Amino acid sequence: MSKEYVFTSDRLGFRTWEASDVIKMFEISSDPKVMQHFPSTQSKEYTANFIKKMQDQFNKNGFCYFAVEILETGHFIGFIGCCEQTYEIDFNPSVDIGWRLHKNFWGKGYATEGAKACLEYMFNVLKLKKIVSVATKENTPSIGVMKKIGMHKIKEFTHPLLRDFPEYQNCVLYELKS
């Protein structure tokens, strides 16, 4: 593929967002199965705003939740990357690593491979000292990825942005230092 990637892993290319990604990311974020650990699916408008926020964050910091493609085919599969978090809690401001992939690409090791590549980029290129990750306590697939990439559980907490959603507010914080 002739796309320009910020960095790559063995199978994945990490790039900034394009306008054409809104429809593809909306397909993922509007899927109830993909969003089962979140209070709701996301609208097309929300997805467009999310992508704009990621573009702005990349322009400001050199990182974001990157659009991710399979190198061999150029097929868009979702996002993996890091994002500034500033909501009110004792561990913020922080840089959070996260992922959201189309369900057809679950169970293939892409989240783990991509997260490891992101950590390498964040620690070795951008020289960050610490990355965190947050998930609901029930999100065992994401917690499994956190463990596989070497993160350590710091604590359980009540997420301040999820207080209106009791079934989602109990979360875990994982951390990795460079």
Architecture overview:
This protein is of the alpha+beta class and about 180 residues long. It has a domain at about 5-125: Aminopeptidase. It contains four helices and eight strands. It has helices at about 20-30, 45-60, 110-125, 140-150; strands at about 5-10, 10-15, 65-70, 75-85, 95-100, 130-135, 150-160, 170-175. The strands form two sheets. It has a five-stranded antiparallel β-sheet, sandwiched between helices. Helix 1 packs across helix 2. The longest helix is centred in the N-terminal third of the chain and has 18 residues, at about 45-60. It holds the Pfam family Acetyltransf_3. This is GNAT family N-acetyltransferase. It comes from Asprobacillus argus.
Query: Which regions have little confidence, pLDDT < 50, spanning 5+ residues?
Result: none
Shape: globular
What's the CATH first level of the domain at 7-127? Alpha Beta
Instruction: Please describe the biggest sheet, giving its number of strands, its sense, and whether it closes into a barrel.
Output: 5 strands, antiparallel
Residues in β-strands, percent: 25-35%
Kindly report how far apart the N and C termini lie. Answer: 32 Å
Mean pLDDT: 95
Which class of secondary structure composition applies to the elements? alpha+beta
How many strand segments? 8
CATH topology of the domain at 7-127: Aminopeptidase
What is the correct CATH architecture of the domain at 7-127? 3-Layer(aba) Sandwich
| Biggest sheet strand line-up | 1-2-3-4-5
Compute the number of helices: 4
What is the H/E string? EEHHEEEHEHEE
Helix content: 25-40%
Rg over alpha carbons: 15 Å
Domain N-acetyltransferase: 12-172
Protein name: GNAT family N-acetyltransferase
InterPro entries: Acyl_CoA_acyltransferase (IPR016181), GNAT_dom (IPR000182), N-acetyltransferase (IPR051531)
Organism: Asprobacillus argus
